[in-house]
Specification:
CATH topology of the largest domain in chain A: Aspartate Aminotransferase, domain 2
Oligomer: homodimer
Number of strands of chain A: 11
Helix content of chain A: 40-55%
Number of domains of chain A: 3
Order of helices and strands of chain A: HHHHHEHEHEHEHEEHEHHHEEHEEHH
Distance between the termini of chain A: 75 Å
Number of helices of chain A: 16
Shape of chain A: globular
Strand order of the largest sheet of chain A: 1-7-6-5-4-2-3
Chain lengths: ~475, ~475
Amino acid sequence: MGDDPKVVSADGFRSDGAAALEWVARYLEGLDQVAVSPSVAPGDIAARLPAHAPEEPEPFATILRDLDRVVVPGLTHWQAPGFFAYFPASASPPSVLGELVSAGLGVNGMLWSTSPASTELEMVVLDWLVELLGLPDHFRFASEGGGVIEDSASSATLCALVAARERALRGATLDRLTLYGTSEAHSSLPKGAKIAGFAHDQLHSVPVLDDFSMDPSALSRMVAEDRAAGFVPCFVLATAGTTSSMAFDSLEQVGAICREEDLWLHVDAAMAGSAAICPELRAFHEGLELADSYAVNPHKWLLTNFDCTCFYVRDRRALTDALSVTPEYLRNPATASGSVVDYRDWQVPLGRRFRALKLWFVLRTYGATGLRRHLRNHLALAGKLRERLEADERFLFCAPPALDLLCFAHVTGNAATEQLLRDVNDTRRVLLSHTVLAGRYTIRCAIGGAWTEEHHLDELWEIIDRLAPPVSAAAAGAPSP
Amino acid sequence: MGDDPKVVSADGFRSDGAAALEWVARYLEGLDQVAVSPSVAPGDIAARLPAHAPEEPEPFATILRDLDRVVVPGLTHWQAPGFFAYFPASASPPSVLGELVSAGLGVNGMLWSTSPASTELEMVVLDWLVELLGLPDHFRFASEGGGVIEDSASSATLCALVAARERALRGATLDRLTLYGTSEAHSSLPKGAKIAGFAHDQLHSVPVLDDFSMDPSALSRMVAEDRAAGFVPCFVLATAGTTSSMAFDSLEQVGAICREEDLWLHVDAAMAGSAAICPELRAFHEGLELADSYAVNPHKWLLTNFDCTCFYVRDRRALTDALSVTPEYLRNPATASGSVVDYRDWQVPLGRRFRALKLWFVLRTYGATGLRRHLRNHLALAGKLRERLEADERFLFCAPPALDLLCFAHVTGNAATEQLLRDVNDTRRVLLSHTVLAGRYTIRCAIGGAWTEEHHLDELWEIIDRLAPPVSAAAAGAPSP
């Protein structure tokens, strides 16, 4: 052991760290010039990488060089100011540095006792957010509930489903339980239901109204019919801001049905939830006091890098009863005392990163005031683009514009809209994505990038305006579907 | 919008980043002096934090000051060289910097098309690891299989369970399926089974042999009996290096039964798997060619920070058939062509961080040679402590010492062992954890910390030697159980 390898050193971390930090800073500086999406075919990047791991150590500078040479040309740049696809990346300097510090500390908060401050900071920050977003008090730790950071809203939905299922299994067998959500609910609902052991036909799709929100009377009818047929309704997923079109299910009406029928109500507010930090935008949370669980993703619109989903439950015992398994090697006096939160019982994995740090860094660096200003700025940018689209006869909105999302199409039909999206994205200055709403091919434009400024929206409009054909030409070239 | 808030800037990232980097460097420099575990009671840390989020922005320096003042005193320092509990933290400078770059890039590789290089680098690095660890070729992408990075071995077990369940459901109903693992299997097996909708009595506990490994003949018998009783056996979890005692189930014997009975064999090699990078330590992988899936955690023993579990499957279609749900807004030409890997279909969440970067950084920074030297050094350190314990009449091994794990007890019984563990941990210079093996309270000592050197093992032995009572005194004070 005389040849102790000294594989790690703080000085090595310092020097390589300075290089990595500068690399990231330059990457961020260059975001405005980069092609938003890469021009690569499947296998292109893999072909540029060696087939075998290196046998001998390589200098850090070589790795950073290959990052530039091989990796970056194959990336879609989610933080580029022209990225309007899917949902915003929402990374910010303090969140990235929170991730750095978390990785540097390397603690694992699976149990309170395995790193107490990791758990307690998370509890406090999640309580802060209840207040900032105006969530019901029953999601605070002072009540019977509480919050936890999950990796994604998908995992939050799965955990809610499992808790609801376990509660319902006291009075029924698994194959009799039924779940409800609309066709507009996120794909993590059918995926979570499948993972949790539900058959495809146990998830019932509730019709939507014209604005793509859940039809509460249809839910009510379906629940009654299912009960009459011998099923045991157990779980409803309501969405506050759907992925496709930012539709808001009425939490008041859906919640009233859930209360009356004793169904677990999970509210998925993955993107929209962050907007509730502005009191004037909070109306979509009305009825949330009826919810059993709730998820919002600061990694979508609150300046926090992925992954950071805040998941709240009304009854933390229902969640931990469903997810707690304690082997001998994890027993400890704090857990036995019942006086601590062990977050492993709030999630699928056992281990966990110290993710509360980055949220703490963000909330403190910007303050509530700064975060509100940030979101209001996005809404102003979205409003300006909305006006331009509204004033132009070539476009129609496929769903009511809401918050940071605009869903529009070319009035002449799907072919023109699809072609326009391809042409716009082929500029590689911007990237938009698509959905289909009531059979109409729809361009989705989500405005929430941390680096997106007014002139980027101007450029986006200039590109759309230039590439969208006039109504007459498009109508002649491609008949409406 | 004239008052654009400019919430982010590369220069701000540079200056705050330098401060964060220096903070982490100093933290790492101080690891040798720190109290490994904190002296705090539940609620202590929370009480030192404000009850409300700040309304106005705060300077980064203030946040770092509070990190020192409030957070650090409440941490268990997983990277401290005296940390021998649970499993090693295994963070290293290149892995931490890989996490920094990943957060800085902020790309989301849910689909190949949402950031192609993120997916392809992960595929290549996972293929590299197949070769480095001597895993069967059927886990490479060139075959029908492939690998993915999950957050934890728990999630890998869940994904394997769901894939096995879906395959078995073609010929049976969920309530007839049965699963198998030993009492020594990780707690993520019963937890995963519960999440996946299996009732408690569908998971059958296979007896272990004297070395705590699975009794293959018992498995064979149980499967036959369950079939005779009308059940449909579907899944076996074999462990290559159990959490409690580093016991190795015979993959050859268990695998032969699984092949004959058409059961999905998942091999959990969370901690031990990394040792296979040294060819002379690979014997425990014999029979792995019979496995359907396999998981190893570089975040446990391969210098990579949590989270980084490498999960391999023989038949990637079995996995993606079980986990794929495609809404319109995620459809894209690359996916439709069938020529790409979309990693969202390999995991529970939809979104994903660019975790391959940190593993790439680690494999290149150390090279295979450096990683082998690192592991061999730990084994030499473990060997030296083992000799000391062996030569001392006060101690006995509760399980055969294997790789980096020593399981020992005071010969006079549980009371003396429990007291010794408390006394040793109360020094706060070191931290060990415990388990129970065949009714015997057992001290677990896992030697794999990146910062742990020979003199730390000497200090650990000095502490144990000083605090362990002589056989006569302990026997007089506390009778054997």
